[in-house]
């Protein structure tokens, strides 16, 4: 049995960055930028007004002064002339500032009377001009790798970027295993349960950048497992759920080895999630997850998410570890690293974390209420309320 950090290091050796592809900008939400992008223009491309009002010469916009309105500048339709002494141009937010003007007199500070305006007392003296290039300049770079958010995509669009290079989505073949499993919507037999792990892991993997093929449930026979593995052909990663332990009906390890699997490790000193294995078959990584619902999901966070990150072009690294203060006492930990389901709250007291009392690896209701995993080191002693602990976020 190896430690979590050792298991992660092994998994990182199995993961390699995938090739990139060109994708229209409108299809890049959540994709990982694979190549730096440079702005094709300057934004704004001209000095523009930040308010509705009048473009004026600031020195002449003193209280009580009257200025002649000589035209209008609107977004997409600029004033073509130049402002001279004693003149003003009606202007709207986003419109180009006319030559000669160095200030926007906001409309609340101007009294309009036909073709003239008079400056009010106690006017706002801010200039309200957005300078050319105030946001970004031509050639400014958005660096890769980067998971593209809605804000990133808006920025790239304003940089006049119609398409970008992104890392291809890893294709993950997901195989649930067990005679006891039926699909949601089916009627379980007296000794069966509804399969949940594959649906949870599919959602988790897709959320973090993968394209998932959820294959038919493999039964506890060599032939059924072989057929399922045949269907995984073409995937970048094969993930099995269940059957990786040492019972008489746990056949995943046997079938994988018979198919030429080069085993990197088997069993990890963690709770939940001990019966975990990893290796390659014909150069394709394969991860065997435990069958308990919570165990498989925890392993999905701790191992599969970092593995996907490497495949998408990020540096090998575990999930970020944060610190919080315990809201209740926690008893001594056992010999395995423990990932306790917990709830994090941020308030004026700082970041606090509350682990749930019930930690059985079959309790999906507790996982559903959790947004973090409190990490306990092997053989660590009891902790009192107020102690600082490490955790990883899972939502």
Give a description of the structure:
- The mean pLDDT is 94.
- The longest helix has 19 residues, at 293-311.
- The chain has a 6-stranded mixed beta sheet with strand order 8-5-7-6-10-9, with no helix packed on it. Strands 18-15-19-23-22-20 form a 6-stranded mixed beta sheet, with helices on both faces.
- The protein has 7 helices and 28 strands.
- 37% of the residues are buried.
- It has 4 domains: 4-18 and 169-311, 3-Layer(aba) Sandwich (Molybdenum Cofactor Biosythetic Enzyme, Chain A); 20-43 and 134-167, Molybdopterin biosynthesis moea protein, domain 2; 48-130, Molybdopterin biosynthesis moeA protein, domain 3, CATH 2.170.190.11; 322-393, MoeA, C-terminal, domain IV (Beta-clip, Beta Barrel).
- With 395 residues, the protein is of the alpha/beta class.
Distance between the termini: 29 Å
Count of beta strands: 28
Overall body shape: elongated
Highest CATH level, the class of the largest domain: Alpha Beta
Strand order in the sheet with the most strands: 8-5-7-6-10-9
Mean pLDDT level: 94
Number of domains: 4
**What about the largest sheet?**
6 strands, mixed
Strand content: 25-35%
Structural class: alpha/beta
Name the CATH superfamily classification of the largest domain: MoaB/Mog-like domain
Explain briefly what this protein structure is.
The chain is an alpha/beta fold. It folds into four domains: 4-18 and 169-311, MoaB/Mog-like domain (Molybdenum Cofactor Biosythetic Enzyme, Chain A, 3-Layer(aba) Sandwich), CATH 3.40.980.10; 20-43 and 134-167, Molybdopterin biosynthesis moea protein, domain 2; 48-130, Molybdopterin biosynthesis moeA protein, domain 3; 322-393, Beta-clip (Beta Barrel). The chain is 18% helix and 31% strand.
């Amino acid at each position: 049995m190896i430690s979590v950090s050792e298991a992660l290091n092994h998994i990182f050796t199995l993961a390699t960055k995938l090739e990139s592809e060109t994708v229209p900008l409108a299809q890049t939400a959540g994709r990982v930028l694979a190549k730096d992008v440079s702005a094709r223009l300057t934004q704004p491309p001209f000095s523009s007004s930040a308010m509705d009002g009048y473009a004026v010469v600031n020195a002449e916009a003193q209280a009580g002064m009257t200025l002649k309105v000589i035209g209008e500048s609107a977004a997409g339709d600029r004033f073509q002339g130049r402002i001279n002494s004693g003149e003003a141009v009606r202007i709207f937010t986003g419109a180009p500032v006319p030559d000669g003007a160095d200030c926007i007199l906001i409309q609340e500070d101007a009294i309009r009377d036909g073709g003239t305006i008079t400056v009010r007392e106690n006017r706002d003296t801010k200039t309200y001009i957005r300078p050319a290039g105030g946001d970004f300049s031509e050639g400014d770079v958005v660096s890769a790798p980067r998971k593209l958010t809605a804000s990133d995509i808006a920025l790239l669009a304003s940089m006049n970027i119609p398409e970008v290079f992104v890392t291809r989505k890893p294709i993950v073949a997901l195989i649930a295993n067990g005679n006891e499993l039926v699909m949601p919507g089916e009627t379980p037999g007296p000794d069966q349960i509804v399969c949940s792990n594959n649906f949870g892991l599919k959602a988790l993997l897709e959320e973090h950048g993968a394209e998932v093929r959820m294959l038919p449930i493999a039964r506890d026979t060599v032939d059924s497992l072989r057929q399922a593995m045949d269907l995984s052909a073409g995937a970048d990663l094969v993930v099995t759920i269940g059957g990786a332990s040492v019972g008489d009906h746990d056949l995943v390890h046997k079938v994988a080895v018979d198919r030429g699997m080069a085993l990197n490790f088997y069993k990890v000193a963690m709770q939940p999630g001990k019966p975990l294995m990893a290796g390659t078959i014909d150069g394709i990584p394969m991860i065997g997850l435990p069958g308990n619902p919570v165990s498989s999901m925890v392993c999905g966070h701790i191992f599969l998410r970092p593995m996907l990150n490497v495949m998408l072009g990020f540096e090998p690294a575990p999930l970020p570890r944060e610190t919080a203060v315990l809201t209740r006492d926690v008893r001594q930990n056992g010999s395995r690293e423990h990932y306790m389901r917990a709830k994090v709250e941020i308030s004026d007291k700082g970041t606090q974390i509350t682990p749930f009392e019930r930690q059985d690896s079959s309790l999906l209701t507790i996982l559903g209420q959790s947004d973090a995993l409190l990490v306990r080191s092997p053989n660590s002693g009891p902790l009192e309320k107020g102690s600082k602990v490490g955790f990883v976020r899972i939502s």
